[in-house]
Amino acid sequence: MHWWVVVVWIDQVLKEGIRRVDEVEIFYADGVEVSADLKRTNVNIATRSDECGLGIRTIDKGRIGSSSTHNPKMWRECLDAAIASGKLATPQEWNGLPKELFREHEKICYDSNLTVDPQTASDLLGGMLDGASQYSAEITSGTATLSTATEMIVNSNDMRCTKQHTGVSISLEAIKGQSTGSEFAQSCFFDVDPYFVGERAAFLAFHSADGKEIETGEYDVLLSPIAYAELLGATFIPALNGRNVHAGRSYLANHLGELIVDKKLVMYDDPFKEKGLGSTHWDAEGMPTCRIDFVKEGVLSSFAYDLRTAYRYGMESTASAIRSGPNGGTAIGHHNFIVDGPRTDVTDERVIYINSVVGAHTANPMSGDFSVELSNAFWMENGEFQTPIHSAMFAGNVFTMLKNICGVSKDVRQVGSLILPSIKLQKQHLIGK
Amino acid sequence: MTEPSGIRYHDLRHVTGQATLIDIDNGVVESAGTSFFNRAILRVLGPRGWGILQIDNYTPRSTKNFHSLLASAYRLAAITQQDVNLSEAPSRTLDVPPMKENPRDVSIEEKTSLLADIEKAAKFPKVVNRRANYIEQFEQITFSDSEGHEFSYEICRSGFNVLAVASRNGTVQMGYERVHSIRGFDLRHHQECGEKAAKVAVALLDAGHAKGGKMRVVLDPELAGVFAHEAVGHASEGDLVQEGNSVLTGKIGIRIGNDTLTIVDDPSIPEFGFEPFDAEGVAVQRTEIIRNGVVNAFLHSRETLAAVGNGVAGHARAMNAEAPLVRMSNTFIENGDATFEEIMGTCNKGVLLIGSRGGQVDPGRGIFQFNAEYGYLIENGECSKMVRDVSLSGEILSTLHGILLCGNDRKMHPGYCGKGGQSVPVSDGAPHVLLDNALVGGSGVD
């Protein structure tokens, strides 16, 4: 649908909506995604997805309603459903949607050189296969996806924001005997390195073969950014969510102002991070974004809020509303969550390097307790991958673990919306076979 | 425009419907509303592989416009290199099981009130948060293909979850109950679920950590079902076998468990993973993945059956109008003949694991992990101290030999399974199972 056509009916929704409720918010997105998938070393599927969606939120005397549809022509039914849903919602303190804050056309995550076509996706797969050929491992599957989309947030307070973004993501999986390896990369810009991704996936499969067992005991470990992200995402990140904090679902609820991680560490959300996957000047409600210092020098300093939660609990919005798409409602999240600290050489002493874990999502989100299986774990010394570890479990508590970080790597990587270093931990409990 | 030449096969799956969600958090109705969806997927098999179009807000097209879509998908297929072939497969549709009470006949106000009763039932001392969600999704699915098959059906999946969080002196624990079904509205008289979630959360405040290591474990029917799903089901999926990414590749006819062990996937039974036909229009039927301890068959789509063999098609599934993947549906360990008392007595010393917080498998490596909601240490064949945060990991090809006894009390439990970015409804089930030499992950120490 052309944008000038969209604007016409969006104005109709607003006009009809404010006749019936106090405020109306509209989210509209459309985009195109093209992907190519490998079955072993051959492309077997090419897909194009044409996506569009409309989400409507209404607020009337503190009652918030919402609905969504793939069909913008159904906006009347969608508006009716949103208003009907609001009538059932418990009223809450509400001080209004943002007013006339932005009108700019944001392209902070947009690359005009990114071509959304199947041949480009196929070429990315070819690049990964070239890289993978450096090691003797079989390729099992891979995918390359390119996308472009335009999003618009409009509300009845004359706020109208539009942004365009592009994306590229690639991944490859490899196997050597019964040893598997995988790697991935994501960017808003056409700057991913398919050769590196392919080489790394094959390396992990190749070098993990013929692993040795370890005895149950305490070991110094180095968590890669991937393993670290898996454990943080299952436990720590939800605990920073203001709604979880005030509703009694956060371990961190009563620890504001306390030392919760090693005092050399900082944790913050930087919505303006160059090339960050979540970089944006406004959040999913149109609030202007800013840096949020969740943890300063190890001390818990802030939680994340959207408008709904901030108004309810007498707090300020931190512009942390996010949307997974037009067909999902708003939720509290982050834009680019960053962990940083004094960078050191974390590979100078012998450690067990853990590339990723199996089952992080089964961790207890309330207590932070976890017990997971290691994946692509190696003995590492002087930065060199040495003997692979066949199998072991890693059990502990994320909140306790974060207090015992004894080193932060010099290099960082982006894992989804997290930008993390590797972290070194002393005396972690591993269960061998 | 005429149909482009060179197309070997095409199918169209159009999914429309509406989803109703109610969210009550500590007595506050956060949301209670309905959203609408309309999506289609057109698959075209070109000279080599697939070209696929996914279209939001799809409207059925005139023949000329449909041929234009076919041409677009065919052009996509031009970059493919894999020679994809489709096996012959029977097409047939089953009747969707009737609903005892149609959720459409119940107002959203009444649904909200009933859910609130369940949420209120979790109000116990030390419970600091109660949250209940109701989910109801009506889907209308229309399928047609170039072989002349045309099917359609409507199905409603509905149910609720209730969570209770208990807290004391900085210790935070949770209890969680869920009921989901394809058999109609089932929100009445379920306050006991709220109470149970609260009691478990409070009891877990005093539970200890299990000491990790190898031991005998008894899995309850829910967790044993997840065990079957993670340890065997995924590795039997034909696409993974075709890619060489499953340890069960080449293992047909090989014994990997004892005689008492039979593991089945059956999309035709009226459980939460029911499908009247699969996402390729193929008739669904029971597949015995493991029969009496021996690898018997893989789960297949038409493509993977042609490429791999050993099994039947009819196991292709899709979330909404996504591309079909080989998936499980209703997966279970068949009943044995042991009673629960015999299982506990034979175990003698170990841990009883109850409920599931989910699991994950690396099918190529043959390693799986899953987590119980809670458990009890078993001493002298009887439950003693409650333990929390207990997980179990193992290797597919060796762990199944450790199943010493299967009970006679199989139950199915609904849930959702993720693969390839798609989440589909499934059910897992089993009787109580005694597993020897299991690797338990816990952070407890002597």
Strand content of chain A: 35-45%
What class, by secondary structure content of chain A? alpha+beta
Cα(first) to Cα(last) distance of chain B is: 76 Å
Q: Work out the radius of gyration of chain B.
A: 23 Å
**How confident is the prediction overall: mean pLDDT of chain B?**
95
| Shape, per Cα inertia axes of chain B | globular
Most extensive contact: A-B, 81 and 86 residues
> What's the total helix number of chain A?
8
Instruction: Please indicate the percent range of residues of chain B in DSSP E strands (runs of 2 or more).
Output: 35-45%
The major β-sheet of chain B equals: 10 strands, mixed
Main beta sheet of chain A, described? 7 strands, mixed
Question: How many domain units of chain A?
Answer: 2
Instruction: Tell me the helix content of chain B.
Output: 10-25%
Q: Helix/strand-derived class of chain B?
A: alpha+beta
Globally, the shape of chain A reads globular
Description of the molecule:
The complex is a heterodimer of chains A (433) and B (446). Chain A is of the alpha+beta class. Chain A folds into 2 domains: 3-204, PmbA/TldD superfamily (PmbA/TldD fold, 2-Layer Sandwich); 210-433, no CATH class. Helices cover 22% and strands 41% of the residues of chain A. Chain A has helices at 3-20, 75-88, 118-132, 194-208, 225-239, 242-247, 307-313, 398-403; strands at 23-39, 42-60, 63-69, 105-109, 138-155, 159-176, 179-187, 217-223, 266-269, 292-296, 299-300, 321-323, 330-332, 337-340, 351-358, 369-381, 384-389, 393-397, 405-415, 418-431. In chain A, strands 1, 2, 3, 4, 5, 6 and 7 form a 7-stranded mixed sheet that branches. A 5-stranded mixed β-barrel of chain A has the order 8-15-16-18-20. A two-stranded antiparallel ribbon of chain A has the order 12-13. In chain A, helix 1 (3-20) packs parallel to helix 2 (75-88) and helix 3 packs parallel to helix 4. The radius of gyration of chain A is 23 Å and the shape is globular. The N and C termini of chain A lie far apart (58 Å). Chain B has 446 residues and is of the alpha+beta class. Chain B folds into 2 domains: 9-204, PmbA/TldD superfamily (PmbA/TldD fold), CATH 3.30.2290; 209-443, no CATH class. Chain B contains 8 helices and 26 strands. Chain B has helices at residues 63-77, 108-120, 191-204, 221-233, 238-243, 302-308, 340-347, 396-399, and strands at residues 9-25, 28-45, 50-56, 127-145, 150-168, 171-181, 208-209, 211-219, 263-265, 287-291, 294-295, 298-299, 311-312, 316-317, 325-326, 330-333, 350-354, 359-362, 367-371, 374-379, 382-388, 391-395, 403-406, 411-419, 422-430, 433-443. In chain B, the strands form 5 sheets. In chain B, strands 7, 8, 17, 18, 19, 20, 21, 22, 23 and 26 form a 10-stranded mixed sheet that branches. A 6-stranded antiparallel sheet of chain B has the order 3-2-1-4-5-6. In chain B, helix 2 (108-120) packs parallel to helix 3 (191-204). Chain B is globular and about 75 Å long. Chains A and B meet through strand 2, strand 3, helix 2, helix 3 and strand 5 of A and strand 2, strand 3, helix 1, helix 2 and strand 4 of B. Strand 2 of chain A pairs parallel with strand 3 of chain B.
